[in-house]
Amino acid sequence: MGIGPWSSRPGPYSSPAAYTDEGWIPTSWPMNYGQVGYDPIPSGWNAVVYSCIMLYAKTIAQLPGLHNMSKDDGGTETISTSALSRILKMPNDYQTRSDFMMNMVVSLLSEGNAYAIALRNERFEVASLHQFLSRSCRALVGPTGEIFYSVGGNSVMDYRMDPDFESGKRWIIPQRDVLHIKGPAPRDPLVGESPLVAAGLPTAANTGGLTHFWRFFQNMSRPSGVLSTKATLTKAQVDELRARWEEVTTGINIGKVPILTHDLQWTPMHMNSADMQIAEALKMSKADIAMIFGVPLALINDMTGATWNNTENLIMMWLRQGLGFYLEHIELAFDKLFRIELTKEYTEFQVDTLLRSDFKTRIEGLTKAVQGGVYAPNEARRREGLASVDHGDDPRVQQQLVPLSYGAELQPPAPGAASPPAPPASEEGTEEEEEVAAEEAARSLDLMLGGAINRGMQ
């Protein structure tokens, strides 16, 4: 299987020249990148941002993907022999399905774009998908409006595509072979933006507050305070006193009793009102970051405002408004790559997997579905991984459940309506009619005798 009919030469080619790795400052950044929150020196993740992004990434990574098709009767059929179904199970030979989807979602939310190139087999089917770093990829528009991508930043595929691994060589790939999942693109339809564009200030405030407290606790002695004296000390004496103080009050010697000389006085320091305001600002910035990502605080282990009664509702709200959008967004990107967006076929991630640990809710839902005639018993059993049973392929309902039109012919005629003609009476009744008449006469006689007896007793 070849790599593909792509170009690694800067030209002549029908598309623009390939771009090399962009380094610390990507060429796509604006000139005032420092003023709008772009940091060219990578640093550690902010804890709140990391929690929000990984909540989406880990949730989507655990959802199996299916290649489904809508049937003419309104049902759904799962296709298990297509190229899409194989890719959703194993995208390539060095990543699992979970690895691939988790990293694609992290790239989408943190960088605004997620790129993967498709390698095809001899039948032009997608045989594998390979993710590339978003900072090393860029969408290009050709002279006649065709869309191409300059890709790079995959250590495995860089070598496979270019065994000599020449420095600076990048590949130009047509749009049909690129899975591009992008965030909101208000400036360029081919370049998405991360939620961090809006969360820049809350993230900076949260990181700055945590940095303040980190420096405070890192540099403080035990107990924290100030040494003061009225005596005039030389620099050597100050350095000696500081070294002696830190020797017995920091590190493994925390808790030892220092002995003060040179008329030194110890003034302990406590967290003042300004520090408390910084702590409150941290909570506000955390709420702002979670709001931008569409994540309830309870899902990132902040139970502020959460109760036992509303936690489940918060989770359901996130599934509908936050996770549901990204699932649909990713599914449509796969549909476009596999060219099924205009057919009855579609990609779908199994959200039911999220209930895998909630056995009670899952079984109660299946039980009601079977009793209500929505699922056949065997359909419910298959969802639990159980074998089919005899006579279990038809949906079932209770016998007394009938449509409202049932028995309409038994209703009395409307006032003024002509009564249907009575059947002609026969001179001699049938044997069944004679038996019915005899039973009615016997019941009438019993009632008469019973009434006479009761009156006699009274």
In terms of topology, how is this protein built?
Blueprint: H1 47-61, E1 65-70, E2 76-79, H2 83-89, H3 97-111, E3 113-120, E4 126-132, E5 138-141, E6 147-151, H4 155-161, E7 171-174, E8 178-182, H5 200-219, E9 225-228, H6 235-249, E10 265-268, H7 273-293, H8 311-337, E11 345-349, H9 359-371, H10 377-383, H11 431-457
Antiparallel strand pairs: 1-2, 1-11, 3-4, 3-8, 5-6, 6-7, 9-10
Description:
The structure is a single chain. The protein is an alpha+beta fold and 458 residues long. Among the domains are: 221-268; 358-400, no CATH class. It has 11 helices and 11 strands. It has helices spanning 47-61, 83-89, 97-111, 155-161, 200-219, 235-249, 273-293, 311-337, 359-371, 377-383, 431-457, and strands spanning 65-70, 76-79, 113-120, 126-132, 138-141, 147-151, 171-174, 178-182, 225-228, 265-268, 345-349. The strands form 4 sheets. It has a 3-stranded antiparallel sheet. The chain has a 3-stranded antiparallel sheet with strand order 4-3-8. The longest helix has 27 residues, at 311-337. The termini are far apart.
